[in-house]
Amino acid sequence: MSLDRTDVEKIAHLARIAISDDEIPATTAKLSGILDLIDKMQAVDTDGVAPLAHPLETTQRLRPDAVTESNHRDDYQTIAPATESGLYLVPKVIE
Amino acid sequence: MHEKTLAELSQALQSKTLSSVELTQHYLTRIEQFDGELNSYITVSPELALRQAAAADEVIAKGEASALTGIPLAHKDLFCTQGLRTSCGSKMLDNFISPYESTVTQRFIDAGAVTLGKTNLDEFAMGSSTESSFYGPTRNPWDTERVPGGSSGGSAAAIAARLCAAATGTDTGGSIRQPAGFTALTGLKPTYGRVSRWGMIAYASSLDQGGPMARTAEDCALMLQVMAGFDEKDSTSVDQPVDNYSASLNDSLKGLRIGLPKEYFASGLDAATADAIDAAVKQFQALGAEVKEISLPNAELAIPAYYVIAPAEASSNLSRFDGVRFGYRCDNPADLTDLYKRSRGEGFGAEVKRRIMVGAYALSAGYYDAYYLQAQKIRRLIKNDFMAAYEQVDVILCPTSPTPAFKIGEKIDDPVSLYLTDIYTITANLAGVPGIALPAGFANGLPLGMQLLGPYFSEARLLNIAHQYQQVTDWHQRAPAGY
């Protein structure tokens, strides 16, 4: 599977990763190489095979709906890039 | 004192012929002396280590010590350690001081072990050579022109150079076993769900598993005893009793059935490694094992399936690194999308970005069935191969990698060639079965690795088999020259 420049720009946008014009040719070549490797799967007939998500096929445990966590907001916000009054700051979203 | 194994150090500490403070200081001095060249540690924590060592000596004096009390360890820098930087080898987390402690490191703290520091790794554990770290490559003490393997290459180099008694690693596609093979160590990837993933920075959640790395199987048994067990904080942790891993080390191998998967000994395997495994087969036969050829017919599909599943899970897991709550944030973002894109574009290295993009592509509209679903179906075929094999044999013996350690820089510009180095290790992660890597010999001064793969929860048996092999061989006793 060979990607072109537009594909790579679209994927980078989906992944929310800034990519410079200089990086695009090498990224396109390397991603295409990886997809060629992956595409070896396509020749395999997997009709009727159930997908495997967890090797032991366990399901999520349930627990009583009770509060078990305490509030760590102050601890967590000491390592945040920008906070104010207990809130995380980001550039203005709504004008 | 660094010549001693973890088990021997434990005895020396408990018989009080050595104090933990002396031992810890000794390792700290060695790190100072050797790690400038090796770069096995990202962060060394001398104050914490000496404080823990002094506390351990008090516990030992009271006669309340356990096997790990006072033992200086290193932790792969993706286990969150409260108050101590947890970088994951990434610029993204260069400033990240974890606000909480991972379950694995907490268990070592509770057992009285000493934390010397945090070891280098491929960025976010995505790699097989420890070259993609933001903090620069780690060098292999057996030949400093070569890689120590990866992603747990910092832990491997630190143990091999005797800069800690043992260390933690994690294994998503071979990241404990391949570096153990490259550095003449013993390393165990447990059954998926045996060791808690809580506080272990996630790469591919359905494959990631923490485990011990040390010089011997006996040492790995002591380490795993602390690490293993149910943890309600990890939703995929398995609630099953933990075996006594040291108790069965001396069991006989008489009647043990070992399978050699023919697909793993086909073209592409280094001749010296193949010869070393032939010699190991004879050793196992002399110990009473029966050896036969088996087949894992879908093994060649493991790498393609892995490079869908792991990147897909990574693209989801790493979406949390957005420049908002913790980690790197770009300067002067124009708007929220610019904040996300530039924080991630500048904070992640090239390989991490590639894997996130492969994952985003595989999960994108119109491609899900062809990629992610197909990979999960192949994962079932690979699991079925193992289950069929374990009807015929008790364990599977095979190499850890196609060649010994390669040179720094040799493969880093060609991702696919680097991915192929994990061809023998990835199947165990997809199937979720445990595997132990151990040294099988040397060629031109470089270690050769082999691994034993067992059924789910057969860790005690794998440690037993490795220990018995290490009673009749001395590969694991060799140390790299100069360390």
TrEMBL record, chain A:
A Pfam family of this chain: GatC
Cited InterPro entries: Asp/Glu-ADT_sf_sub_c, GatC
E.C. number: 6.3.5.-
Signal sequence coordinates: none
Known catalytic reactions: L-glutamyl-tRNA(Gln) + L-glutamine + ATP + H2O = L-glutaminyl-tRNA(Gln) + L-glutamate + ADP + phosphate + H(+); L-aspartyl-tRNA(Asn) + L-glutamine + ATP + H2O = L-asparaginyl-tRNA(Asn) + L-glutamate + ADP + phosphate + 2 H(+)
Keyword terms of this UniProt record: ATP-binding, Ligase, Nucleotide-binding, Protein biosynthesis
Superkingdom, taxonomy of origin: Bacteria
Quaternary structure note: Heterotrimer of A, B and C subunits.
Function: Allows the formation of correctly charged Asn-tRNA(Asn) or Gln-tRNA(Gln) through the transamidation of misacylated Asp-tRNA(Asn) or Glu-tRNA(Gln) in organisms which lack either or both of asparaginyl-tRNA or glutaminyl-tRNA synthetases. The reaction takes place in the presence of glutamine and ATP through an activated phospho-Asp-tRNA(Asn) or phospho-Glu-tRNA(Gln).
Family: Belongs to the GatC family.
Protein name: Aspartyl/glutamyl-tRNA(Asn/Gln) amidotransferase subunit C
Gene: gatC
From TrEMBL, chain B:
Keyword Protein biosynthesis belongs to the record: yes
Location of the Amidase domain: 22-463
Top EC category: ligase
InterPro entries: Amidase, Amidase_CS, Amidase_dom, AS_sf, GatA
Enzyme Commission number: 6.3.5.7
Active site: 76 (charge relay system), 151 (charge relay system), 175 (acyl-ester intermediate)
Domain of life, per lineage: Bacteria
Cross-referenced PROSITE patterns: AMIDASES (PS00571)
Catalytic activities: L-glutamyl-tRNA(Gln) + L-glutamine + ATP + H2O = L-glutaminyl-tRNA(Gln) + L-glutamate + ADP + phosphate + H(+)
Keyword field: ATP-binding, Ligase, Nucleotide-binding, Protein biosynthesis
Family: Belongs to the amidase family. GatA subfamily.
Subunit structure: Heterotrimer of A, B and C subunits.
Record's function text: Allows the formation of correctly charged Gln-tRNA(Gln) through the transamidation of misacylated Glu-tRNA(Gln) in organisms which lack glutaminyl-tRNA synthetase. The reaction takes place in the presence of glutamine and ATP through an activated gamma-phospho-Glu-tRNA(Gln).
Protein name: Glutamyl-tRNA(Gln) amidotransferase subunit A
Source organism: Pseudomonas neustonica
Encoding gene, per UniProt annotation: gatA
